[in-house]
Design goal:
CATH topology of chain D: Alpha-Beta Plaits
Strand content of chain D: 35-45%
Order of helices and strands of chain A: HHHHHHHHHHHHHH
CATH architecture of chain A: Up-down Bundle
Number of strands of chain D: 6
Helix content of chain D: 25-40%
CATH class of chain D: Alpha Beta
Number of helices of chain D: 2
Strand content of chain A: under 5%
Number of helices of chain A: 14
Order of helices and strands of chain D: EHEEEHEE
Strand order of the largest sheet of chain D: 3-2-4-1-5
Bound molecules: adenosine monophosphate, sodium ion
CATH architecture of chain D: 2-Layer Sandwich
Low-confidence stretches of chain D: none
Radius of gyration of chain D: 13 Å
Mean pLDDT of chain D: 95
Radius of gyration of chain A: 19 Å
Number of strands of chain A: 0
Largest interface: A-B, 31 and 33 residues
Structural class of chain A: mainly alpha
Distance between the termini of chain D: 11 Å
Helix content of chain A: over 70%
Oligomer: heterohexamer
Chain lengths: 337, 337, 337, 93, 93, 93
Amino acid sequence: MQSTLVLQNLLSAPVLFFFLGILAVVLGSDLEIPSPLPKLFSLYLLLAIGFKGGVELSHSGLGSMVLLTIAAAILMSLLVPISSFYILRPRLGADNAAAVAAAYGSISAVTFITAQSFLNVVKVPYDGFMVAALALMESPAIVVGVVMAKLAASRLEPSPGGPSGGKEPIPWPEVLREAFLNGSVFLLIGSLVIGGLVAYFSPSGVERMEPFTEKLFYGVLCFFLLDMGLVAAQRLRDLRQTGPFLVAFAIAAPIVHAFIGLLIARLLGLPQGDALLFMVLSASASYIAVPAAMRMTVPHANPSLYITTALGLTFPFNVVVGIPLYMALVQRFIPVA
Amino acid sequence: MQSTLVLQNLLSAPVLFFFLGILAVVLGSDLEIPSPLPKLFSLYLLLAIGFKGGVELSHSGLGSMVLLTIAAAILMSLLVPISSFYILRPRLGADNAAAVAAAYGSISAVTFITAQSFLNVVKVPYDGFMVAALALMESPAIVVGVVMAKLAASRLEPSPGGPSGGKEPIPWPEVLREAFLNGSVFLLIGSLVIGGLVAYFSPSGVERMEPFTEKLFYGVLCFFLLDMGLVAAQRLRDLRQTGPFLVAFAIAAPIVHAFIGLLIARLLGLPQGDALLFMVLSASASYIAVPAAMRMTVPHANPSLYITTALGLTFPFNVVVGIPLYMALVQRFIPVA
Amino acid sequence: MQSTLVLQNLLSAPVLFFFLGILAVVLGSDLEIPSPLPKLFSLYLLLAIGFKGGVELSHSGLGSMVLLTIAAAILMSLLVPISSFYILRPRLGADNAAAVAAAYGSISAVTFITAQSFLNVVKVPYDGFMVAALALMESPAIVVGVVMAKLAASRLEPSPGGPSGGKEPIPWPEVLREAFLNGSVFLLIGSLVIGGLVAYFSPSGVERMEPFTEKLFYGVLCFFLLDMGLVAAQRLRDLRQTGPFLVAFAIAAPIVHAFIGLLIARLLGLPQGDALLFMVLSASASYIAVPAAMRMTVPHANPSLYITTALGLTFPFNVVVGIPLYMALVQRFIPVA
Amino acid sequence: MKRVDFFVSEREIERLCKAIRQAGAPGYSVMRHVTGWGVAGEISEAMDFSGLGANAHVVVFCDADAIAALQGVVRPLLERFGGVGFVSEAEKF
Amino acid sequence: MKRVDFFVSEREIERLCKAIRQAGAPGYSVMRHVTGWGVAGEISEAMDFSGLGANAHVVVFCDADAIAALQGVVRPLLERFGGVGFVSEAEKF
Amino acid sequence: MKRVDFFVSEREIERLCKAIRQAGAPGYSVMRHVTGWGVAGEISEAMDFSGLGANAHVVVFCDADAIAALQGVVRPLLERFGGVGFVSEAEKF
Ligand SMILES: Nc1ncnc2c1ncn2[C@@H]1O[C@H](COP(=O)(O)O)[C@@H](O)[C@H]1O
Ligand SMILES: Nc1ncnc2c1ncn2[C@@H]1O[C@H](COP(=O)(O)O)[C@@H](O)[C@H]1O
Ligand SMILES: Nc1ncnc2c1ncn2[C@@H]1O[C@H](COP(=O)(O)O)[C@@H](O)[C@H]1O
Ligand code: NA
Ligand code: NA
Ligand code: NA
């Protein structure tokens, strides 16, 4: 069973294009998807899943199950960075630990989308409101990361990673802007709201958006994963810098967080598809919103640490191995609805 | 009735994405659609409406109603800049007056497209040949603008805006190239002709273009309006520079021009949909072809004046308030066909 | 008959957009499709034809006819550059001759795609496996080109074009990387393999890719040919540099190579559609993979020679005149299946 | 040897480069998509979609004698269409 | 007259430009999408899709007297967020 | 301190940067998408779609002593693949 899931995942177009990108770097091809085309794909994917999620949310409404799931998701995005911070700080110092912790508390929209596309392949249904959970999990972890770094610094525990300017108070306006008004978070939430409004007030608009947001989606995802393969493989060259401890963390963290996610999903009584998505949200780490936010709010953290772990290790792990693995767990522990 | 029209417009996806762009700037989000992606959307929209217009023109043929409407449209694009010039010159000087006048005589393709999409929502039909009017209204106003600036300068009335190099004769080759061979005008007219030829000689080609030119259209429009929202909101910061007189002009001009457009549409006996489009063409101001042309032919005009009024004020006014307002007037004064 | 074919080709949307691009340059319009948008279109087209070719190859399998055709295609891509080299060397010197020869031995994917779209118009079927021939014809000619240049240099026949560093041995790793791992070759072959795998193991994935790889294809081709028209017309300005000999070569070579291709197609017993594609592969010259490869491996060859001939002359010739001409020959010499 | 840096509107590149060739400079390099701030206010890339574009940075390395010729052809352009230029010392690598 | 070249992260452009205006410089130019290598390792454009961006090159031509003011406002930024700056001689074209 | 400006084909960036690191320079910055004109004629961005690309501008600020090492590794590249380099004076900001 499990090996079938793995194969179904490995032989899907998005994952194959991801491998093609990795292969290009490994073999030394000069294939490149020049900037800002990856940004076009990433803006498109955020707009499209936001809009679709909003449409589905408007159909399902905000029932107690929806609200409970979203609350649990936000809780995860607070607990994961706090616990990760304490695990990482002894080795990395407060700044680096805070930044890596923020990355793992936050989410990866592309991993989520790949999981949705995997659920389509294995024909397991899932609910649209999970996109709302996705949208609301990006920001809290960023705030937690900055707060942890500042608290540690203010206790006059200088981090080995360099001066952390800790005596200054937390620059709340900047932190909140980076957390909640970050371009990708803002576009995702904005599209979610627009999708909801359009579905409610002018349903014919949803139909007119479909060729764009639905039909193209799979192809653009393949294109973007090709680029993600290129970028992730380039990151692997930096692995020497990260050291074995962070490599182990980058593989262990998603498994542990997915497992916690599974327990919560079970507690909430989520159906199989939603449970997988909840696990993937818990397991994935951010390389979009978080690096940009950390660069400005925890500038003395080393970007190559949090980008390499989140994008070079955890992302490929989740996309290639994690998703089918979590699905196997779901099939074992979550009853069919 | 009117408030329904306003709501139907406000709650359509393109207008909501336009608001999202404005909101991003107002709240200080770093959302950006990096260059040249907006150019991709704008090239696409021009190619698509040109092609579709050509196809429809080839079906309807060039009857006397079509030719009359186009002639009236060209007339508007000559009268508006001349009258605007004389209103603006006492305050702005010849160069700035000429450039702003050219902007208001010319048209905004995106406003036109948004009006078409509004007509789809309210289920009022319109004719494809209106795209020909759109295409032919861009250039004349540019020529008029340059001629007014040069005439004023040659009469030795130095404009307060700076030296206008007025003793030199009008550089006709450059003016005509900027007016008629301007990239966006050229692509629009070229696509119109190609659409007509393909529809006439190889109709199966029309079908093969449809997924690209028809199905994607609405989604790309949303994406482009998101960017327009970002750009228009940034422009609003320059309002101090423009002063209250130009602000008043930027709101009054579209209303007055739309009203004149309504009278002409009534005279011509245009059906409701075409009448709205004719009003929108009259009311809208150019921020694509005109700024680029004025930069080269009237270099001493201040770009922030004509861009801010056309893009920062008149464009949002037309898209948000103007279109439903003009539609209310249409419903009142134009008989249902 | 023949004039109908010419007209059917000339009045198709892709060819008309190609003309529009040429016209823009001729008239002095400032229309431009800014970088990296043309790269987006070119990556998309390679991914899409690769994927579609792989899907069809997976349906047809690798029968003896497929293998024979591919072998013949590779043979062509070895013979053409060798013979071209000996024709060109006396006039151009070894380096330039080698680079031009490599261009003509290799292929132009866009010419191939335009020929496919022409076959759709004239309703003549063709096989998906021809894409495999396309993919495998790009690289050998590059290797041959480099080897010819190095052999000539090592025989101490200094080329008039400048020093060719001939005493150094052939840098095989670099040559092979440029030939086989060149971004466009790599993406095409990679997408071909992915298309085959997906079609075989998860056919529903093919369906989900279709809106992207099939439906958009025609429109993107039009957009890309608009850019090709702009670029090709700019190249024509360099014609003085190339001289009459190369101009003659750029027109004669495709005709001669297409004729040899016709003979081989006849020998192989290819049906009409495949025969045309085989001729087009033989006749077309590369301006994507080859210039990039030659720049690095035969750096003393003059890029404006091989780019101008392949892109400025042979490409327009094939797209406008060649394809219908070759089709007329096919209809005369290849029996209807 | 001298190094000259020009910052002008993207729409003037062709005119400027023609003037530089006319002045006999041995070469030049052009960087587009430059934003900035000067007498004419702020120039951003936001209007790029319209063909108006942002600024360009044009660099010319040439002999000191060529500067006068360059000033002769380029200054009228800067005066008419806006833009700035700066000169510094350089030598061949 | 002096020429100052800054290389900073694209995300610091706004802060840097504000500081330059504050220091009273008469203008500046910004080139984005700059990659490079320095104390903080290699900066590529690969993360551009994430909003992290690459580096920017900011050029300021100003009077020699303005340099001190510039150093006052810009050096703290370079120290806090990384980046480098260099000064050379120049004159008006 | 010296400032070195290179203009080479975009396809040679990697080779050039490797040579610069080899020569012991403390850092460098790379700007792509540079068009221009020189001995080899005009270089535009029109072939960008093909992977051939345009030019790149590579800037290195380094100590005067490092120039000789830089010339040792970079000059052969410029001779083989084309491109130009220029040196000027600079100091830390
Ligand atoms: N004198 C110059 N000033 C500025 N840039 C130059 C100069 N000469 C050459 N270049 C740049 O270097 C590139 C290669 O030069 P070349 O090898 O002379 O063709 C040109 O395309 C220009 O971008
Ligand atoms: N002092 C300066 N230093 C660097 N760039 C400048 C300076 N002044 C002007 N510029 C550039 O030149 C462009 C045109 O300048 P201006 O004509 O003064 O508005 C500006 O948008 C800047 O990109
Ligand atoms: N010596 C140098 N020459 C040119 N550019 C440099 C130099 N050092 C640093 N840079 C640029 O400045 C950026 C930040 O430098 P750093 O803070 O040293 O990592 C680098 O990524 C380079 O783009
Ligand atoms: Na997570
Ligand atoms: Na108007
Ligand atoms: Na060939």
